[in-house]
Design brief:
By secondary structure, the chain is an alpha+beta fold. It contains 10 helices and 15 strands. The strands form 4 sheets. The protein has a 6-stranded antiparallel beta sheet with strand order 3-8-4-5-6-7. The chain has a 5-stranded antiparallel beta sheet with strand order 11-10-9-14-15. The longest helix has 22 residues.
Amino acid sequence: MIKAGMACYLVHYVHSQHDTFFGVMACMDAILCRCNPGQIKADGGDQGKFDDSVRALQKKGVPVWPSPDVMEFMGAKDALTKIKNLNIGMPDTGTYYTEEEFIAGFKKSMKFQPRVIKQNRGSSGEGIWIINLKKGDYCATYGEASVEDSDELILMEANDNHVENHTVIEFINWCIYGRDEGKGAGEWASKGTGKYLEGGKAAGGQLTDQRFCGRILEGELRYNMVNTVCLGVIHKVPAPGGMSAVGGTGSEYFFYDNGVISDTKLGSGDFIAYVQKEASADGNHHRCATDEGPAKVEAGTHEKKVINVDLEALRKKFVEEDCAILMKTLELPDEPIPLWWTADMINASLGKCWEAVPVAEQKWVVGEFNCSCVGVSKCLPAYCKPDTPNVSWKDIPAEEAGHATKYGDIVGAEAAKMLGV
């Protein structure tokens, strides 16, 4: 940003000095907020008070990237329902805010197709459930039938890929009552607490219901964006036996630059996987670790699969058609697209997982947006943790620091455009 002609000041928010902080912020031409929702409350402050003060600055014409409303509306799981009619959405997506809506809607959707049920408050996959009917007896059309309370479900939680078996009514009670005694949820191995609707819509209590895309095993694409400029794509592939590509679960990441840190632009790419011939207990054909693949193919237990994705065609369609109306669709018509954000896309194309689909027929949908404190992976060596409390920019290797600087230069150039500098 400094390179783009702006003077930048790093100011820490201390909740006990709230008024002083916002007195200083009122003197700024723009504010770049690097604070995740919930961090202020965890430190003993008042998140609502902070957000209201930010909104007051916005009313006076001070841009804030991202604003509290953008973080809330883009980060909320019901954003998937709002975008269901865009290229990046799925029409049979819904959000439940009340117990009655959830019970009726889930029983209907669960009978139609495998589902992903996502709580609004969780992070790193906690409270995101991939659900299948144990009998697999789905109806042909949506709304034709509903599941019974006694029907059995197979559930996998995305935070750690653990599997549980419960009846429909036990899952419903878990979502509503959690582990409360006598409420009929049964015993759960989840690290979470359930109660996803607690507090109602105003308190963030909601569940989003989306058709499960079986091709998640082929991985998801994270588009790293600065305004409408794509820096690159990360292909995140679930670990062998897993369904989620959340970091820390053994998933593999493949990076594709878009001409930022190299001369290579996005194009069409192939992903090679070595997939089981026989289905696992969960009914899916999982891949093995890439370096083990050739040996397992030779042994006859696996087969080589090639998945082709046109990353540039997907970027072009996303930026030119969806980004132009994205903020209005998310009910944020007066807000700009975030300065730094990501969109995670999943292949929702019809057909069996690992069976190639012509690029022109592929359907990619967004599973999640993130615009609050998006990380710069090249800067991880400067991440202060209990075992590395004193690391800094100086601890980042020269090559990675150079890459991070190039990313920052683009952020600065886009911010300057937005400010008319």
